[in-house]
Amino acid sequence: MDNEELTLFRDMTRRALEQEISPNIEEWEAQHMVPRQLWHTLGQAGLLCPDMPEEFGAAGTTPQVTFAIIEELSRMGFGGIASGYGIHSNIVAPYIEHFGTEEQKAQWLPKMVTGEALGALAMTEPGAGSDVQSIRTNAVKDGDEWVLNGSKIFITNGMLADLVIVAAITDPGKGAKGTSLFIVDTTLPGFARGKKIEKMGQHTSDTAELFFQDVRLPASALLGELNKGFVIMMTELPRERLGIAAQAVAAAEGALDITVDYVLERKAFGQTVASFQNTRFTLAEVKTEIAVNRAFYEKCAEAYASDSLSAEEAAMLKYASTEMQCKTIDQCLQLFGGYGYTIEYPISRFYTDARIQRIYGGTSEIMKELVARSILGR
Ligand SMILES: Cc1cc2nc3c(=O)[nH]c(=O)nc-3n(C[C@H](O)[C@H](O)[C@H](O)COP(=O)(O)OP(=O)(O)OC[C@H]3O[C@@H](n4cnc5c(N)ncnc54)[C@H](O)[C@@H]3O)c2cc1C
Q1: pTM over 0.90
Q2: Ligand 1 pocket by Cβ (under 6 Å)
């Protein structure tokens, strides 16, 4: 898509989201869950997995279009839905497209495009978050099948997912070199969901604990090569981090927009809040920080499009953009005074939705470690 087409597409997306999500967002936020139907609706609107190949019923666009949808969801203050959407369209579908067999693609991608199948990615365990190499979930070969045992925590879309890509040990004692990925159909016996994990924000993305007890997987459930799970995860991480940066930059832009509207209206000491020098400087700082991050995000998105986004750049981008998101949204909320702290004003949702961005997809500290390693070589 050229720039003009992308602008038209963004407008169309915003109209669809305005119609399908805006009237319901407060109810869904209160329920801490979106209805399963939302994913069918987004599928019908052609908004799920747009960059998957046309042969699977998708639009066959570039990933730029998927990033644009993540941005519009985030800009409108639907941070939780943006996360669930990102996992489904920006992570799970590309994993299958890039590493799946023709049979796996034919089985899952058409349903992911329509919303009939919702995807999740399960790496984290109670004892292994940043240190993913310490996972204990394991799969043991038994005849033609794999037997999967273990548990995962904090899995986005976990309550509703129809397929979960699960990282499991297949060669014990070899750490990263003994880890494989499996596509787990959640209707299989032995798969169970724990209770929904209650969070401080992103209420419209459900987060679950998942359990696998002697889940018998067919040989065809293995995603990519045996014991190459880590290589696959590392290959896909730059795209995942680009998606998180898309959320960060667009959410900050959306927060700034509603803040400008508010300070122009709100009066104190006989003048608008916008007229105070502090407000003017804060808005100037926020706008500048967003612009700097948007420029780096777009540079990284272009690098991804030409297959040249490095792991270090993606880590720098994730770190910088999510720290900027939290800082600028906090500055915006301050300009709302007490109203900013109430759930009646969406700025409070921008604020609570932002906080996790510095933690999932690799914490800011882990991003700094990755960048430092690229500088020092160790
Ligand atoms: C809402 C939500 C959604 C999530 N979605 C998913 C999902 O869909 N799939 C999935 O697999 N996971 C998911 N996660 C898990 C998330 O990726 C992890 O929480 C994250 O990677 C951090 O792991 P941890 O929570 O175990 O923290 P820990 O690893 O225990 O970290 C604790 C603290 O120690 C710091 N730390 C750890 N190691 C180092 C180090 N080497 N150097 C310096 N500091 C360090 C961390 O930065 C952090 O500040 C989600 C989490 C949440 C809360």
Answers
A1: yes
A2: 87, 121-124, 129-130, 154-156, 199, 202, 207, 356, 359-360, 363, 365-366, 369
